[in-house]
Design brief:
Elements (H helix, E strand, L loop, with lengths): L9 H50 L3 H7 L2 H6 L2 H15 L2 E13 L9 E11 L2 E12 L5 E10 L9 E2 L3
Antiparallel strand pairs: 1-2, 2-3, 3-4, 4-5
Helix pairs in contact: 1-2
Length: 172
């Protein structure tokens, strides 16, 4: 009977190098994930107050103030009269906003500077009104004319009570 052959001595060294390489990749991934997480939290802290100020104007019936604070693309696509009429119709169908909670944030690269924006962010909220529940989506864009300040590009409420209504958006 012949003795079993042993693997070359380099195999444990190769295995150690692969393990070390995988550990380095995992560490790099976790580090990037940590930076991304902090970046999202910072962006949330920057953007939520802007969306909240816009929402407060809507809740107080200051449609002209909300409209003037909006991104130029929204103002260019929707007249103040249409903006106010649509939001009053939405408020009439939903009733008073009883509460909302932040649900998420996404940020993407924007269109060219020639279009007047650099980046777009979407904030999502769960909402409860007198007439039911739904979601609110607030899209903000950086306004080149205002030195990159974030401004509301669209505000959309979704609820079964709103079936048949068009959103107030620059996409209209």
């Amino acid at each position: 009977m012949t003795p079993p052959e042993q693997a070359p001595a380099k195999a444990p060294r190769l295995q150690s190098m692969l393990t070390l390489g995988c550990a380095m990749v995992l560490l790099s991934f976790c580090t990037c994930l940590g930076f991304a997480s902090r970046s999202v939290v910072q962006k949330q802290r920057e953007l939520v107050p802007i969306a909240d100020a816009f929402a407060k104007k809507l809740e107080q019936g200051d449609y002209a103030g909300a409209y003037e604070s909006a991104h130029p693309r929204l103002r260019g696509a929707v007249t103040l009269d249409r903006f106010e009429t649509t939001l009053k119709t939405i408020g009439g169908r939903l009733g008073k906003l009883r509460g909302r909670s932040f649900a998420g944030l996404s940020v993407s690269a924007g269109a060219s500077a020639a279009e007047g924006q650099r980046a777009v962010a979407t904030l999502s909220y769960r909402a409860t009104w007198d007439e039911g529940t739904g979601t609110i989506s607030v899209q903000l864009a950086q306004d080149e004319a205002a030195e990159g300040a974030w401004k509301v590009l669209s505000w959309k409420a979704k609820s079964p009570a709103l079936e048949g209504l068009a959103p107030v958006s620059s996409a209209d």
